[in-house]
Amino acid sequence: MMKIGLIVNPIAGMGGRVGLKGTDGEDTLIRAIQMGAISEAPEKTIKALQQLLPIKEQLLVFTCSGDMGENETVQAGLYYEVVYISGRNTTSDDTVLAASSMKELGISLLIFAGGDGTARDIYRAIGQEVPVIGIPAGVKIHSPVYGNTPKAAGKLAAEFLSGRQVQLVDEEVIDIDEEAYRNDVVMTQLYGYLKVPVIDKWIQNKKAPTPLSDKASQMSIALDIADNIVKDIFYLIGPGSTTKALMDVLKLKKTLLGVDIIRNRELVKADCNEDEILRIIGDSETELIITPTGGQGYLLGRGNQQLSPKVLGKIGKRNITIIATEGKLIQLNGNPLRVYTGDEGLDKELSGYYKVRIGYGMSRMYKVEG
């Protein structure tokens, strides 16, 4: 049987819906739990592992106790062996020690669930000695070592383990300073490279910054949106430099990496979490203005988990306005914009063709895929 490793960071992504932009640090995790955050990484891991069921008889999963892998493997129905016992409250040290143990046991592939911080821990433990595939479960996912979705990560693993010709590529491990991130400052650092099997349709791109040449286009889009704001409607303004241009035009302070609410050209609440959004908008008509992540093309599910299925259900597909510069769309090389809310039915509902605003009075039809 082929031996593979599985490590789950069970707290990954818990800071997303409550607006904390990550869970690095014990104090932040405690705060997230107090605000009602729940663990979503286990469910996402199960979705990935279920893609391995067709080759179940060929696999033995080496994993960690409890929610660090054992529980998810049991629910997915795969054969497994616990090779690392974690404590009740897991830490990055558990990830490093578990990955090191699995490397020594001669695994063919290490699958891990988490965000950029987890990818850093995996790199510390194994370097480029073992191929890896990341299951996207964190708030920060800038590193191109993750599948586009949990299912995509599982399908990629199945292809690789089935002996198909899958290219191994050295991909960057990138992380940002969470404290600076919470203060709207993006400080990224390259920590190393992991060896990743790559099939373009299933692996995500590295997040790319907006080029300076797009700044004029951002302003043009912002002026168009500002000129068409409707009285007494709530507007949710998603993260990003393109949406920030709109707030600059309105002379309002933008939370660059958060979700803000405006009404009648005034700021109602900055940097909102899921509960705050739901409480403020109630049953009022609300429009969402979002822009995709540069290079990756994610509209929902990357760094804006506050825009949860509950929030999106209140807003409705017809009230979503997508803004993006032509340059940002060109970066996607024809690939669709993506949504991953964690609710498959909602993702399908949100899929289709949208008019993307690319300038003043200008739009382009573009495909969105769940």
* Helix percentage range: 25-40%
Mean pLDDT: 87
Largest sheet: 9 strands, mixed
Structural class: alpha/beta
Q: Which regions are unreliable across 5 or more consecutive residues at pLDDT < 50?
A: none
- Strand tally: 16
β content, as a range? 25-35%
CATH level 4 superfamily of the largest domain? Probable inorganic polyphosphate/atp-NAD kinase, domain 1
Domain unit count: 2
Order of helices and strands: EHHEHEHEHEHEHEHEHEEHEEHEHEHEE
Q: With helices defined by DSSP (H or I, 4 residues minimum), what is the helix count?
A: 13
Distance between the terminal alpha carbons, to the nearest Å? Answer: 34 Å
What is the class of the largest domain in the CATH system?
A: Alpha Beta
Q: Any guess at the CATH architecture of the largest domain?
A: 3-Layer(aba) Sandwich
Radius of gyration: 20 Å
The name of the CATH topology of the largest domain is: Rossmann fold
Report the principal-axis shape: elongated
Largest sheet: spatial strand order? 10-9-8-11-13-15-16-14-12
